[in-house]
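Input.
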Amino acid sequence: MAIKHILVPTDFSEYADQALNDAIQLAQQLQAHITLLHIIDTAPLGVVEGATMLPPSYWQELETDIEQIMEESLKRLHDVGLQGETVIVHGVPFQTIVDTAEDKGADVIIMGTHGRTGLPHALIGSVAEKVVRLAPCPVLVTRAATEASPTM
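Output.
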């Protein structure tokens, strides 16, 4: 299987940063293109009767901050000689990752996981688990290194 395009979803957590590090290492070996994806998930805000909507300025500032962080991540790619792009969209995380992988023709998705188990996993669900089940390509799920676990 030739890997020429890697999709890396990020929520800017240490887990996503580890996935980006792993993607960079793989992309360097294969000279693959990386698409960095961030999804602005508005679902947790929900719509509560009588609630005040967030002002448009909030969303504009949030998107400006996200664009800056994504550009810093893109610079990491360019600094090691890799090609890449950033994609920022509003949506449901697992579905947006799957859709973006299909739209961009990703050969593999490399993403981090928080590794929740038990009740937190049951209540929150696992984006990574849903992506693994629905993705149009292989998915490599990584976890940030802890003192008890070595890195990839």
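The chain has one domain: 5-42+52-142.
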